[in-house]
Amino acid sequence: MNIHLEKKNKKIIIFYSSIGYGHISAAQAIKKEIHKHNSYAVIVLKDIRDFMNPLWRKIDEKLYWLVAGNCPELFDVLFQEIQMRGNSVPSLALLPNDYPDEKVFEFIQSKQPDVILSTHYGAAQVLGNLREKGKLKNIKIGWLHTDFFQGYFPRISKRIDQTFLAHSELYKMWLSAGVPSEKIITTGMPVYVPEYEYKDQKTILDKYNLTEDIPIILITSGKEGVGNYVALVKDIVAHYNGALQIVAVCGKNKKQQFLLKTLKKNLPDKIKLKIFSLLTHDDLLSLMNISDILITKAGGLTPVEAFSIGVPTILLNILSGHERENASFFARLGVAKLASNTNQAAELLQTFLFNPAEKEAICRAQKKFKENFKIEHIVRFALNDNFISCSLPGDFGAENGNPVINVNDALSQLDANSPAEVELLLSYATSQSPQRIIWENPFGHIAIRIDKTVYSANYIANPSVDSNFLQHLSLADYLYGVKPPSPSQIHTNTYGMAYGRETIGLRVAGVPAQNLTAMIAEIYRIENDFKKGIIKWDKTKFNCADVVDRILQAGGYGESNIYEKFKLPSMPLDSFEKAKKIFESDASLKTDLVAYHMVPGANADYNYCRFPLSLKQPIRSLTRTLSNSKDFLEMSISKHLVVYYGDPRVYFENLRSDFENKNAHFYNSHHYVYYKALANDLKKFFKFKKAPPKINFWKISFLKQ
Question: Can you give the C-alpha Rg of the chain in angstroms?
């Protein structure tokens, strides 16, 4: 491996999660591999759960295993909700977070790392939050996705420098989700599996009092020992007539150990049952190496370790959610067999023992799976000093500077997904310094796009210099332009809006051609009146909202202004929402709310913004002034164009994704789905003949999170 190394104390933090053993196992494997190439590297392994409230941490872990181990349908519903929420929020920073950003940042500052790696998505999400705030600018951030499904996780990859994926199929999924190829790489799952020779195997057999002439079946299901070991052993014994050696590793589950010890007394003599509690990782790997068949759950790491060793594997459908996704992926690749219950697992075991061809086929698939194992890519990322994080030009987003890239591609994707002949563009108030109320213009701005052209009132237009009162710009220039369209322009105030403020777009499709023609005609009447000196900008009598209202009325989409008699000026927010109501009431039209987010890291003069206020909505305006929470208008956005900190590209993202569409029943009957899932789980658990009493799950706080 060609890695440019400097023999220096490169500092690396690797975050993992102690829920399950897979995340720390992967972290340890990465640490060992890095030290092979640079023994000087200072590597700190840190449990991301250390940043949780201690009391909540204990409760959270017990709740997790209670639900995961006993309520598979409810666990699956919770998993689906997390994925759909992750796909639909405007920013991942809005998702519930048990790991306070500032505490994590304080820890990172205390260690002064050159590189941060994560083997858990929650930690990667926090690192992305910090990067989004403009922190961790010069620290490389990499994340290993330790599962085998997509979910909302490609959005995490866009916020950090590098994502390491466990299989080439995942790489294709991430590309399809719009993640640039240079931000992702297939590395396989980092596993540390020693090379065992025959003499080593003999030593292991002797250590555990096992023999090589009788099949060895290893049963393990994580450190919590979830599942029904007793039922599994009983079914294995019932299906197989020969001698067997069964090794049951129960983890910290004392109940499993007790029940198995009771069962052991009643087993036939030809069945040798070995019962263990939590073993070290090395001991578990050694047992895996001498086993003929492994029966386990579908975590991200243990099955991959088995595939690496070459052990025919049966996956029990114990946990739903992410593990069900993993199991489906493994079964599709042919590297493991999936059993829906203990009886089916026993049948599959018998097939392996009596059908060598089945065993050979699964071992061939596992060998092919190992071709994805390229941990050196993670090492190269960590140790190669040529990789520069968050590299943007100094004039990025400034007037006459370097603009964002990929604008036309992103807008084309938006147009294909949400075509529209008319679009209202509501821009936030912007300022040069942080302010609760932006005194220069707290009411924001509104413009209108008709077909390909944005018409926006220029409040400093001068008839002797500007031929038009309205700017005639492409949407790309209006939002992301850096070159002044005319001499009397202010960057982020009249063009290049996204470098200094947020903009919400109301896209309208289905507007008849005659209505469009009438609106265009009105635009040219306004221009002629400006040239003749009949009209001019006036913040109270003829501002941007008045202009848009006049254009919409000409097209048949206006209504009288009830505030005129009170002599209150027109407000962009009111004009936007009034038009929204009119458009949405017309069944022949299709509307869509989109967001064009402010570009982070832009070096524009104006780069602070606040939601537009309205004198006609005092309570709402006061709320927006005092609070940083999202307005209901913002939460209704279905699609957006976004730029991530340190990356000059514009991304189109559909916040109402295919994942959500496939699970529309969940959103349409949110509480009922929770009730039904838990009712089914309880009926199975208690063998109820009737469903338990109805519960309002929305009142249970951890379900809301």
Answer: 30
